[in-house]
Amino acid sequence: MRQANIKNGVLVLGGGIAGIQASLDLANIGFKVYLVEKTPSIGGRMAQLDSIFPTLEPSIKLLMPKMVDVAKNPRVELITYSEVVGFSGSNGNYEVTVVRKPRYVEEEKCTGCGKCLEVCPVSIPDEFNRGLCRTKAISFYSPYAIPKVAVINPEYCLRLSGKEPCDKCLEVCESKAINFEQETEKITFKVGAVIICVGAEIFDASKAAELGYGRLKNVISHLEFERMLDPSGPTCGKIIDLNSGKTPKSIVFVLCVGCRDKRFYEHCCNIGCMVSIKQAITVRERLGYDVDIYVCFNDIRAYGRGYEEFYEKARSLGINFLAGVPAEVRESPDGSLYVGVYEKILNRLLEIKADLVVLINGIVPRNDYVKLSQIFNIPLGADGFFLEAHPKLKPLESPVPGVFLIGTCQGPKGIAETIAQASGAAAKVMTYLSALGNTSQELLE
């Protein structure tokens, strides 16, 4: 018999691949799922990738079906553009308070036609494309946004910022979805368990000033390069020199930016080696042998299934691997970049001329971890990531009963490990709530 105080809902906090997989597994078992995502769309970091390693399959081809499935599942309630601000209660009976930010576009009315974007006069940096192109003050978060609902940026909107009374989007919206009076909404609901999978951030490479990120236009992050490689990205998949728009003749990849560095973070970013190899192989396949490719590394850590073979493939394609991390990247008067690196194996200092430098930024904790740690009463480790109950015996459990941790909020990891953790956490939730008196059969009734 089910105990009256045990709730059958589950909060999944984070709408990336971890949250999507966990939500699907829980919903298929029979649980009511509240999937809360901070940005206007689910998809997370995986939606920004061109391809995955070591298969080089298009990332969105694997992700989009799951995004659609979770959005259509009647047991999953998507709560996007929202943040958790309150969490209270006890074992199996928690109350969650969520604040939903105003889109200034009503979700149930917006048809996703895009006419509002066509008439908006304000151009702003595109967040999803990491600033490599521009979008409008009213826009869809990404080409794959789910829900496919426009959102207005109040900081740039002429009307909402008080600059002038612009009504252009309002005038062309046939479904009357624009609502400049929309306000912040507070939502409260009860759950029996929580899965936290808020993801992580990539290191701000401008802090490593010697590499020129943020100062030199052709020094970009690996995530910006992913958007460049994506056919739906700002360059339609073309690899270009951002100064001239021409095809680069030399590209240098720099590993361990911000990680394995006592100035910043000492942990390994886990995926950096394979990301650089994947991107280097992609460059070779698209541009052929007209481009020189260099990968500057501390160590190559190809630990996963098929990873060593992937690394050997890169070497066989004439990609140059240099055992050393650059000391500086400088720009000559003609706009060319020069990368100075001490190569440990050759025991000599090299200077490489490059048209494009791609920094493999490490995976690091998000700024809001401290706030979330306080809300859920979950400690952070010395590395800044959320701390599980036990690294070996309870790798998915937090110290709080019924609250589970998965994905990169625990520390750097790849997509396969993240998905495995998501399904594992869903099973843990079922076991936990069943032990308290909830069963999936009762949930389905």
Offer a few descriptive terms.
445 residues; alpha/beta; FAD/NAD(P)-binding domain; Alpha-Beta Plaits; 5-stranded parallel β-sheet; 22 strands; 23% strand; globular; disordered C terminus
Descriptive report:
Helices cover 24% and strands 23% of the residues. The longest helix has 22 residues, at 415-436. It has a five-stranded parallel β-sheet. Strands 13-20-14-15-16 form a five-stranded parallel β-sheet. It is of the alpha/beta class and 445 residues long. The model is unreliable at 440-445 (pLDDT under 50). The radius of gyration is 23 Å and the shape is globular. The protein has three domains: 9-100 and 184-200 and 365-444, FAD/NAD(P)-binding domain, CATH 3.50.50; 102-183, 2-Layer Sandwich (Alpha-Beta Plaits), CATH 3.30.70; 203-362, 3-Layer(bba) Sandwich (FAD/NAD(P)-binding domain). It has helices spanning 17-29, 59-72, 115-119, 168-172, 222-229, 272-287, 307-316, 369-376, 415-436, 440-444; strands at 9-13, 32-36, 76-79, 82-90, 93-100, 123-125, 134-136, 138-139, 151-152, 185-191, 193-196, 201-202, 219-221, 250-257, 292-297, 320-323, 328-331, 337-343, 348-354, 356-361, 363-364, 403-405. The protein has ten helices and 22 strands.
